[in-house]
FadR family transcriptional regulator (Sphingomonas desiccabilis), 252 residues
Amino acid sequence: MTRPAGRKLYQAIIDALQADIASGRFAAGDRLPTERELVDRFSVSRLTVREAVIGMEILGLVEARRGSGVYVTAGAPGLLQPSDLDIGAFELIEARRLVEGECAALAALTRSDADVAALRETLDRMIAENRIDSPDEFADREFHRQIARATANDAMVLTVETLWDVRHRSPLCVAVLDRARRAGVKPRIEDHRTILDAIAAGDPDAARHAMRRHLGRVIEHLLEATQHDALERARAEAAELRARANRFSAIR
């Protein structure tokens, strides 16, 4: 699709679907086209469509229902506008994959023994956080910040910290990551250990590859988690329907 100046792709999709709703093409209670159909219509990736649909849920325009699809809601939209959603989780991680891949490569060339020791200690804390299902993931963030600090490049540190700050600032990013946590997605310890080992070995190519592979997996896990979220809602609603049926049978 052609993206209007100053608009993100997912925002342009929301604009187009809002126009469809306003024109009556989709009325309250109507099911939106499937994700595959939207991908074909707008010539974008699944990531972009997924962010657009989640964004529409946040805006109060649609709701996922019984695992059968996404439906237009009858209520008025909320106070947020598409531009308020800010940066999405998928585009954030794509940016992190580029920046932090090079950051890891540089760190492999500049790290000190103290940097490697700090990374090992933080990895241990990440393992502990995973055991208690910590929702904050402080150790995960600190691990990536320490890699940036190991580059001895303040501009790299600022860039990585800014990208991580977006995780907590953007409503769309927060919504996707919250769903991922509810679906059981946690920092992958083996991925981080592979990154650490490559940096400790002074191998920039291996460090770059390990970081990019790790963040590529994060994107896939977010896709799976947002799909899992819809399935869980469907299971919950099906369980409620079964409970109602059982109560009705007991009355009879």
